[in-house]
Amino acid sequence: MPHFRVSYVVSAPDEAGAREIVDALCLEQTVELPLALVPPGTWINEHVVAKCESLRRRVAQPSKPAAGDVRWDAVVRYNDDTSGGELPQLLNVIFGNTSIKENVMVDDVMLSPTLLGKFLGPRFGTSGLREALGVPRGAMLMTALKPMGTSVEKLAAMAYDFAKGGIDIIKDDHGLANQRYAPYEERVRACCAAVKKANKETGRKCVYAPCLNAPAHLVVSRARFAKAAGAGAVLMIPGITGLDSARALAEDPDFALPIICHPAILGAMLGGGSEDECRGFSHKALLGVLPRLAGCDATIFPSFGGRFGFSERECLDILEGSRRRMGSMPAILPCPGGGMTMEKVKVMRDTYGEDVCFLIGGSLIGHSDDLVANAKHFMKIAGRTDLYGPLERAPGRSDHHAGRTHPAYATDASGDTLDRLKKQMATMEANLSKVTEMYLASEKARAEAAKHAAGHAGAHAAAHAASAPAPGSTLAPGVKAPPTPVEGNYSKVFHRPEDRPEDWTWERIPQEMYKQDGGSFKGCSRFELLGKRGESTVFHVRYFEVEPGGWTTLEHHRHEHAVVGLRGEGVIQLGPHVYPVRVGDCAYTAPGDTHQLRNESNAPFGFVCVVAADRDRPVEVDPSAFLKSAAAKHALQHGMRDALEQQAKHRAEHAKAAGAAGAVAEGSACEWKPGAKKKAAAAAAAVESGSACEWTPGKKHGH
After folding, report:
1. What is the pLDDT of residue 420?
2. Is the pLDDT of residue 448 over 80?
3. Predicted local confidence at residue 413, as pLDDT
4. From the centroid of its chain, how far is CA 43?
């Protein structure tokens, strides 16, 4: 049965206190009853009550903690059915009543593929907005029409100037609604007409985005009016009108305009901040993940260094939530703003890169009285080169250029630029000639070498060396195709040794360590078969082998993977349950599920694991804590307790031998990359002498 996961941050003085909070949360967010009324073993407990999958001390602790304020990371699993497949109920299950309590923050939300499929998500996203705005590269730019109290005529004049100057998105300030000094319908008509006029003159695709801050029964009708009037996007305030109103509009096929999320009111639901409060939602979840789930195509947030107090780390977390993999949903456009000035654009570029939309309002308006010039200055400092639209005449460009159809992102070429381009073309042609000469010379040398070899080896050998087999001819039995390349994005085949069918190795592929530390696993090694040698696959294919009595790391992560048994037999732990894996058996690990593979037989256990190439770092689970949690809620299968207790003992012994730093695995089979040659040689020696899983950098092993 599919599940979704929520990662919470909990404040408690010790692990027992944290577990008490999380156990209460599991009940509060689902059945809102004491455990005694829904005890383990009942259908509701097994299928409705949430389950804590992991609890561990958080790496990042408050810089100035209050007494007893220790932070803990908890991952809680919910049955998909508890959400009803609807966004309002999903939000209710995620935080609901617990949002009223203290010392809990929603850090992240990881939905199952099944639940993600209930939501269409953004219609445009970053790539769709680039296409709609005609900005294939570079930062996009946004500004706001303000202040409240400005007449319709003046707002429309501002919209025209900003579009004439090249600002991609001209939005209403979020305070513009339906006030008497600029009524909604009158303002929308005028501003749409103004931007359309500017686009006709410049050849650009700038858009006007009116604000849909309206009573619930008017949100959809105002959105449709905006589209009919020629708006290119809309601004929504989910903190006021609700995330689900954005979702409904995004999924309406008759609307089909980009939706920009404004964070007003949502600040009351945020945790973190300068006081590092353990409450509300994280910036990543509230301003990145949830707007994306609701179908917003862009998310506005206050950048660090402005007047709102967001930290740089919190802003980068919003970017992560906006871009990370969420099924088939496209990444959405992060829009840092919030009191940003022209002087801070360079810092924003250095921090966020170019795949964003910079929002500047007051500083852009106040830079000078010439809003067109202000807009072009904004474009220039943001790194844009299309300072003039395809239909505009730039200084130094002759009349015959004006009116010609150009690419949407063309640059203005001065005489010096054209001379430089001509020189570059001449150089490229000269280089091509040299390459051609080198190729012809090498072919001539090859033919001469073949002829020379023929003089010494006889006519038959000469014929064989000088030319390849004739097309259409049949090769003699036993003549094999040439070996395929190892590196690069070429079709390739890797064979197991023909003379050693019992040997599960692959020619030209080295055996590697399972991970860089042996505290969390035992007796494991791996082969990276496909995906890490230049192939363009979106997945990696790996072969893992576990020695008798060995095990992989007990862990969970946000990506999924598939396992197929190839050699021997073992077991797979999926949450609190254990299943056999024999040759040909397939196993799927859903995102967030705690899992492990073990070899309880007397022969090697080998399996293929297919995983996404772009994936998150796994989180190791303490076997003792997992055993305690599972035993409190489930009957344990035979052998599970012994296996986890043995792992806990191994982990403790490894930590004692290697020091505290070695107690937790520092790498992962999901993202380990070969290191320096010396370490690789040491790893190979460890494989030859014993088990790579026991290899520790800098230590010699005698087994």
Report:
1. 59
2. no
3. 43
4. 36
* Token duo for residue 696: 């520790």
Q: If you ran DSSP here, which 8-state letter would residue 277 be given?
A: B
514 DSSP 8-state letter: S
- Within 577-639, where are the H helices? 623-633
Over residues 634-661, the pLDDT tens digits come to 888 888 999 999 999 998 888 877 654 4
> How far is 316 from 323, CA to CA, in rounded Å?
11
For 534-586, the DSSP string reads S---SEEEEEEEEEEEEE---EE-SS-EEEEEEES-EEEEETTEEEEE-TT-E
Residues 6+ apart with CB under 8 A from 166: 141, 202, 204, 206, 375, 376, 379, 384, 386, 387, 388, 389
- pTM to 2 decimal places: 0.60
For the beta carbon of residue 612, count every other beta carbon within 10 angstroms.
16
Set 206, 261, 609, 670: catalytic member: 609
Alpha-carbon distance 556 to 617, whole Å? 9
pLDDT in tens, 470-520: 777 788 888 888 888 888 888 999 999 888 888 899 989 988 888 866 789
Per the annotation, the verdict on 693 as an active-site residue is no
Q: Can you state the percent helix, strand and coil of the chain, rounding each to 5? A: 40, 20, 40
Instruction: Give whole-number Cα distances, 396 to 14, 166, 392, 415, 416, in Å.
Output: 70, 19, 12, 8, 11
Q: For residue 563, report the phi and psi dihedrals to the nearest 5 degrees.
A: -125, 135
Which two three-digit tokens encode residue 452? 């020379």
pLDDT band at residue 83, thresholds of 50, 70 and 90? very high
H or E stretch including 587?
strand 586-589
Distances (CA, A) of 258 to 118, 174, 318, 422: 20, 16, 19, 41
Q: Which one, of 663, 633, 629, lies nearest residue 648 by Cα? A: 663
**Cα separation of 79 and 98, whole Å?**
18
Residue ranges of E strands in 320-413: 333-337, 357-359
Contact 40, 116 (CB under 8 A): no
Long-range contacts of 274-279 (CB under 8 A, 24+ apart): 274/309, 274/311, 276/62, 276/63, 276/64, 277/105, 278/9, 278/10, 278/11, 278/69, 278/71, 278/102, 278/103, 278/104, 278/105, 279/102, 279/103, 279/104, 279/105
